[in-house]
Amino acid sequence: QKEVEQNSGPLSVPEGAIASLNCTYSDRGSQSFFWYRQYSGKSPELIMFIYSNGDKEDGRFTAQLNKASQYVSLLIRDSQPSDSATYLCAVKATSGGYQKVTFGIGTKLQVIP
Amino acid sequence: NAGVTQTPKFQVLKTGQSMTLQCAQDMNHNSMYWYRQDPGMGLRLIYYSASEGTTDKGEVPNGYNVSRLNKREFSLRLESAAPSQTSVYFCASNFADRSDQPQHFGDGTRLSIL
User: Chain B contact for A89, CB < 8 A?
Assistant: First the structure.
């Protein structure tokens, strides 16, 4: 079992719709959760992070965390073609005194005009 | 605001050649990382340096060595390049001891081994 799991996609949504991206993790001691966006040929860039159960909103983006169920999700409202990218889920946990970050393989999102 | 700077951006090597990928950050981060990214595999940690003077193996360290030259610089060396090391390499840095701190990535080095 992978430590951080994401569906690789592609996830296709029409322009203006809500895109829902999901991520599950195996380490119950995980403390912080990050969503990165990566355009083709570019480096990952941070979109949001969350560390408390519940929702965190930033503009069109909402991160949701449920530690009991060990999943974290990212909702993108009013999806735009410019949102088409791969979205990486990253999970941070303490391991041997070091804060280890594990990335999922990423979900490719395609927003159809 | 340079952030994390990687050099070179592109490189083509022949099997058996050696090279060093350079990474420097100007954010005063204590921790630095080297990842490789391959299609369908996601980001895989090669080596990391939790603080100046320390380095540790990650998930896929075989065939690589690293040097944390100072707080700013962390280099990755391929001693004898193999075609399996063809990949995109990313350097990242952060304050690893703070749980709310994300990693900041460089632009990547696209490496092809023939």
Answer: no
Is A49–B100 a contact, with Cβ atoms under 8 angstroms apart?
yes
Parallel/antiparallel/unpaired status of strands B31-38 and B42-49: antiparallel
Tokens for B30, please give them: 């204590």
- The per-residue pLDDT for B83 is 96
Using CA atoms, how far apart are residues B24 and B22, in angstroms rounded to an integer? 7
What percent of chain A shows pLDDT beyond 70? Answer: 96
- Report residue B69 as tokens: 């030259």
Task: State how far the Cα of B32 lies from the Cα of B25, in Å rounded to an integer.
Answer: 9
Looking at residue B1, its pLDDT comes to 63
Length of chain B, in residues: 114
Asked if A58 reaches chain B (Cβ–Cβ under 8 Å), the answer is: no
Instruction: Name the token pair of A113.
Output: 């005009």
Q: Is the CB of residue B95 less than 8 Å away from at least one CB of chain A?
A: no
